[in-house]
C-alpha cells in the first residue's frame, strides 16, 4: 500500500470489523460502547467490531462508531472515514462544564480551542477548529423539537486526562473563557476539515470539574448515563435523519 486511499480502505474494516460498502452516508461518533448498543437495540441491528479497536452499528444510512477516547483516536477515525467520504459526521461526546453549566446540559460548540496538539500534525495552529454550520443548525432544530435548551460557545480540547487538581491550569481555563473541556472536539473539527468531511458536535455535560464536588466519579457517571444519554443519542439520530431526508449538502466551507 503506497497511498493514503489504499491504507484507509484497508484499515477502516480492520479497525471496525465492518466492510467499507456497509457504512452509512451519515456517521455518529461516540466514545462509549453503550451508545452503540442503544442504537443497535433501537433499530434491531447487530453490533460489529467486538474485539476490534472500534465498534459500529448501522441502520437507515446512519452508522454509529465507538472510536475510544482521546485526540489521537479522534484523528484516527476521521482519517479512516476518508475511505467513505461521509456526507456528515456528528460527534456525540461528553464534556466537563467550566462555567454556569449543570450536569445534563447540552453544549453545541461554535468552535474548539486546539490545546491537544494532535491537530497540529494536520493544519497550522493559526487555523481555527470550526464545525460545519449547516450540521450544527440541524442539531439545534432537533434539540428544539425535544423542547430543550442548550449552551453555545467554545470547547477547550486537551490531551490531559487528569488535571482537576491543578489550580494553575484551572485558572488558565477561566482566562480563556471556554464553556467546556473535552479531549476530542478540536481534533475532529480539524481532521475533518483536512479530509473534506463535514463535521459537528453535540456535547453532554457529564461533570463540573472546576469544583471538587463536581469531579466525575463512577457513581455520578452512572447517573448521567441513566438520566441523559438516551436523549443525547436521540437528538443525534434525528439530526442526521433530517439531513438525509432533506438531501441538502452540509458543506459550508470550500475545501481547497
From TrEMBL:
**What Gene Ontology cellular component terms go with this record?**
cytosol
Q: Please give one Gene Ontology molecular function term for this protein.
A: AMP nucleosidase activity
Show where the Nucleoside phosphorylase domain sits. 43-235
* Family matches, as InterPro entries: AMN-like (IPR010944), AMN_phosphorylase (IPR047039), Nucleoside_phosphorylase_d (IPR000845), Nucleoside_phosphorylase_sf (IPR035994)
Q: Which GO terms describe its biological process?
A: nucleoside metabolic process
Among SUPFAM superfamilies, the record links this protein to: Purine and uridine phosphorylases
**Record field: transmembrane:** none
Q: Which PANTHER family match?
A: AMP NUCLEOSIDASE, URIDINE PHOSPHORYLASE
- This chain belongs to the protein called AMP nucleosidase
